[in-house]
Amino acid sequence: MYRHFLVLVHDSDAGIDTVAHAVALARSVGARVTFVHLVREPREGARAASGRLFDDCVREMVAAKAEAAARALGVPCESMRVTGGVAQRVRAGDAGAWGCDLVCVAAQVVAARDGVGEAADHDADADADADADADADADDADAAAAGTDVAAGSVAAQFAAANVPVLSCAVRRSPAAARVVAALYSAHRATAVALCERLAHNGSPHPGLDALRIPRFGTADACLLSSLLRGRTSVVDAELGELERQHQRGKVLFEELERVAAASSAGDAPPERVAEALNGYAQFVWEYFGRKEGVIVPAAQRYLREADWREIEAALATAATLAGTGRPQPKETTRGPQGRRA
After folding, report:
1. CATH class, range 1-110+153-171
2. Pfam families recorded for this chain (predicted)?
3. Residues near 285 by Cβ (< 8 Å), separated by ≥ 6?
4. Among 183, 200, 216, 184, which Cα is nearest to 340's?
5. C-alpha–C-alpha distance, residues 34 and 287, integer Å
6. Whole-model pTM above 0.70?
7. Which pLDDT belongs to residue 47?
8. pLDDT in tens, 113-150
9. What is d(CA 23, CA 28) in angstroms, rounded to the nearest whole number?
10. 328 Cβ partners below 8 Å, 6+ apart?
11. Which residues, 6 or more positions from 38, have their beta carbon under 8 angstroms from its beta carbon?
12. Mean pLDDT of 288-307
């Protein structure tokens, strides 16, 4: 029986699904998890200092979300970032050195290793459609990650060639479910990009603070999704309740950030206070997203029916039409089959 998983993580939809898959499996067998982010060091002068800070923030966010998902399910975990030449020389022996007996990677990584041009998933077309609908911010984030992350496919191939077990964490979704989940991930990523941009500039006040709010998709995302999920099962009621409490806490932290930013703009608070409030809020948001992506999305995947996903998708489409953008728009609401929010 496997006791210690090594999970290769990165900032992409497939990376999010890999964390959720690996953590759930680790919980079922009583294993612990080490999250590893393989990163190339940029060439000297390749990026401005603010760009490097942005990249560092994204990596911190990836680790924080993964750890939050593991903690929510009671799975012992740790994270490490392997950079520079060391990342280039990762070999199968490192799994043993780290005490890991199973390597978990995204399905696309294994497919690439085997020379297949698409993910090893019978819903690949659905995933492609979902990706096409994703926010442009997600595309930008993935493109940036591609420039700094070591190719995980080559690492997976090294482990497999050395007979170290490699688990392909494929997630099978219907077309409607794939589009809804992609929209959720896209909204989370847009907020993350806005936060990391602000953090990379040391929290300097500038317009657009609303982009840092924790998103909610009108009558769709968490509101309708959680109501439908409660109607199908009670196994995640406690987690949904905790997520709602966290959302309320996030609103309080955001309001405090607004106050500090306004005071700083007026010259009544030093920039350090803005940076401190922003860092605290960002860490909270990473953990909130991690719990949601690592616990609620997999539960919805398991218990919701196709009709439920289509209902959520229709609500997303309505919200997008009302907003006049063609894309889901996060906003507060109390609407839902049971009048609950989460």
Report:
1. alpha beta
2. Usp (PF00582)
3. 191, 192, 195, 212, 214, 250
4. 216
5. 17
6. yes
7. 56
8. 333 333 333 343 434 343 434 333 334 444 434 433 44
9. 9
10. 183, 186, 187, 217, 218, 220, 221, 316, 319, 320
11. 8, 82, 87, 90, 149, 150, 152, 155
12. 94
